[in-house]
Amino acid sequence: MKKYRYPSVLTIAGFDGSGGAGIQADIKTASALGCFSTSVLTALPVQNTQGVRKIYPVPVEAVADQIKAILDDIVPDAIKIGMVHTPQLVNTIVSTLAQYKKIPVVFDPVMVATSGHRLIEEETINAITEKLFPIADVITPNMDEAAILAEMKVETLEDLYTAGKKIKNLGCKTILLKGGHQETSTITSLFYDEYEVFHSFETLKFNTNNTHGSGCTLSSAIAAYIARGKTLYDAVSSGQEYTYQAIENGTDVQTGLGNGPLNHFFNPQKMIKNEMV
């Protein structure tokens, strides 16, 4: 009898009880793209569509134990790392993953929420660049996060190009610089690849507040497409298209009183079954 397995994505990220971002968005995204989703909780933010009220930390020992429990049992085809808000957490994740075979990593450096709330401690940035960047196959900062990493204002497309080169010098393999905060009718995002070549992706900008969790969704979509076997460039391209459509299909829906979520299940796919060799 033939046996099969699902392409699997592990998300290591924070919680969002309002369902639009964090681990909830990651699970929804991977599931909508036909993958099996496992998760490790790094923090418990108290938040809704209007913003983050408080963040309760998860003990680093618990994070390490969660990672080991998953990797000892359901080996993922890709890993998405999201909210990592302390140096101790960075060190724990990196040292624990190092005990296992290398798995493709998508790192979304969550530093600023959609609401503008700063989510990361200053001293964590050095730990992220020194420890997490080297193990990540792609990082996905938005313009606010690129500004923090590049230590410069990032307000225009030209700024994004400059910031990308500065961030690359910090030790990343590739970078997807998200242009969603551009004040233009067309949004341009840049993928800066391992050969130091920029690839641009353009989409129309929607007049909507329903973008809560868009960064989590995009990074998880990229991880899902990697898990499905796409090349990194194709995963980045397909991930952006999925996120664009998820935003488009949720523009006219009100969920909460603030920044609403995306429509992750605008076209859900059946779970993919790959034959085991």
TrEMBL record:
Residues 16-262 form the Pyridoxamine kinase/Phosphomethylpyrimidine kinase domain. GO terms for molecular function: hydroxymethylpyrimidine kinase activity; phosphomethylpyrimidine kinase activity. The keyword Kinase applies. Pathway: Cofactor biosynthesis; thiamine diphosphate biosynthesis. It holds the Pfam family Phos_pyr_kin. Coiled coil: none annotated. Keywords: Kinase, Transferase. InterPro entries: HMP/HMP-P_kinase_dom (IPR004399), PM/HMP-P_kinase-1 (IPR013749), Ribokinase-like (IPR029056). The keyword Kinase applies. It comes from the Bacteria. Its EC number is 2.7.1.49. CDD domains: HMPP_kinase. This is hydroxymethylpyrimidine kinase.
